[in-house]
Design a protein that fits this description.
Blueprint: H1 3-13, E1 17-19, E2 31-33, H2 35-53, E3 59-61, H3 71-75, H4 78-81, E4 83-88, E5 95-97, E6 117-120, E7 123-127, E8 135-139, H5 145-149, H6 151-157, E9 164-173, E10 188-198, H7 203-221, E11 228-232, E12 242-248, E13 251-260, H8 262-271, E14 283-290, H9 291-302, E15 303-306, E16 309-312, E17 323-327, H10 333-349, E18 354-356, H11 362-371, E19 376-380, H12 382-387, E20 389-394, E21 400-404, H13 408-415
Parallel strand pairs: 3-9, 17-18, 17-19
Antiparallel strand pairs: 1-2, 4-5, 4-6, 7-8, 9-10, 10-14, 11-12, 12-13, 13-14, 15-16, 19-20, 20-21
Bound molecules: glycyl-adenosine-5'-phosphate.
The site of glycyl-adenosine-5'-phosphate has 18 residues, from strand 10, strand 13, strand 14 and helix 9.
Length: about 425
């Protein structure tokens, strides 16, 4: 099994990610997050949001609708230009994104391919109940459009001044020609976007600032930051004058885009509304990352094997559970009661995501927690009943320390700083 197969299998087995609509045979390009996956994804999104809005000045957020007025996608240029070239095999009729092909031969059967045809990747939908009176519109092809639509609302309802940013985390939808590679290319996915509005003369400075800031942020999350790099695009999206990717092992995770005044000018033109501010149409630096791609790359990055042990070396801040609590023996009520007290305290008082396990032997419980990335396991044993100390075992080093129960709060607060 290669790494990706191992990660996909772990994700399903331990409840991180399940194939979408599985009981009906699945639906290509759609996935559901399970109990552990949703915890990890929420942790990621919370860290991103706090970093943007708390650790930077002048950034505020919105949460826009997935469906917008159909004119939005004409103004944004997506109806005209959001296209992927598609080639079809004349023999087996499999379809491919022409950009991914190295020759004119079908990678599956060796048949001849048709010349590339453009194919719009917006996902259309219809609103209204009466046939022939329905309105055709689109699910957002990129989440950021709702930020531009609300630009005037935000400046009128807050006290922002240039330069400032609006952030949003939200779903986007694309009718990808070749969804695949697990979470990498889906038809429904989530983006975290910053749109930074600036004066044109400060654009270069801010573009470089956000490029570096975003790389620093990703580096702080990954166990192997040396796998992250910038890549400059030569082929640009219709809205961008300059674009860099942040890539993990050569694959795109986030785009840093020089959008200039394309979006606000186009929406001003198509809506007839004045979208200027402080006497200009602000220019935009966009940082637009994939939440699911980050999740996938973090799983690959964290996955390791030592002998017959699988260890998910996730940064503790994003691990689904921070702590596991075990009574040494499940059939000794004194141990169970003591362990339950700690379990409840960590969850309810310290607000730590904590899991309980009293099955099998301690060794098996450690293996089980290692596989889902739980950084620390607490065991309540007979010594605990005598001196109120517990063992804390570290996921990455497998070393154990003995800590008084009264010092657990300080211990974990320091560790998670
Ligand atoms: N608003 C700009 C924008 O949407 P993009 O480069 O097309 O730019 C930004 O998308 C990020 O969204 C990508 O870097 C990637 O992480 C994620 N993304 C794009 N298409 C995706 C797909 N089909 N499946 C999963 N993530 C995707």
């Amino acid at each position: 099994m290669d790494l990706m197969e191992k990660v996909v299998s772990l994700c399903k087995r331990r409840g991180f990610v399940y194939p979408g609509s599985e009981i009906y045979g699945g639906l290509q390009g759609f996935y559901d997050y399970g109990p552990l996956g949703v915890e990890m994804k929420n942790n990621l999104k919370r860290i991103w949001w706090d970093w943007m809005t708390v650790e930077h000045d002048n950034i505020i957020g919105i949460d826009g609708a997935i469906i917008t007025h159909p004119r939005v996608w004409e103004a944004s240029g997506h109806v005209q230009s959001f296209k992927d070239p598609l080639s079809e095999c004349k023999k087996c009729h499999h379809r491919f994104k022409s950009d991914d092909l190295e020759s004119n031969t079908c990678p599956d059967c060796g048949g001849e391919l048709t010349p590339p045809r453009d194919y719009n990747t917006l996902v259309a939908t219809e609103l209204g109940v009466i046939e022939n009176e329905k309105t055709k519109t689109y699910l957002r092809g990129e989440a950021c459009q709702t930020i531009y639509l609300n630009f005037k609302n935000v400046v009128n309802s807050t006290r922002v001044k240039l330069p400032f940013g609006i952030v949003q985390i939200g779903k986007a939808f694309r009718n990808e020609v070749t969804p695949g590679n697990f979470l990498f290319r889906q038809r429904e996915f989530e983006q975290w976007d910053l749109q930074w509005f600036t004066k044109p003369e400060e654009m270069e400075t801010w573009f470089e600032y956000w490029k570096q800031e975003r790389m620093t942020w990703y580096r702080s999350l990954f166990t192997h930051p040396e796998n992250l790099e910038f890549y400059q695009h030569e082929k640009l999206a219709h809205y961008a004058k300059k674009a860099f990717d942040i890539r993990y092992q050569g694959r795109e995770m986030e785009g840093i885009h020089w959008r200039e005044n394309w979006d606000l000018s186009r929406h001003a033109e198509y809506s007839g509304q004045d979208l200027s501010f402080e006497g200009i149409t602000p220019w935009i630096v966009e940082t637009s990352g994939g939440v699911d791609r980050t999740f996938l790359f973090l799983m690959n990055d964290a996955y390791s094997e030592e002998g017959d042990r699988t260890i998910l070396k996730l940064n503790p801040k994003i691990a689904p559970y921070k702590v596991a609590v075990f009574p040494l023996l499940a059939n000794k009520p004194e141990l169970v009661t003591k362990a339950e007290g700690i379990f409840k305290h960590l969850r309810l008082n310290l607000r730590l995501s904590t899991v309980w396990d009293d099955r099998g032997n301690i060794g098996k419980r450690y293996y089980s927690q290692d596989e889902i990335g739980t950084p620390w396991c607490i065991t309540v044993d007979f010594q605990t009943l005598e001196d109120d100390t517990v063992t804390i075992r570290d996921r990455d080093t497998a070393s154990q320390v003995r800590v008084p129960i009264g010092e657990l709060d300080t211990y974990f607060t320091k560790k998670l700083k």
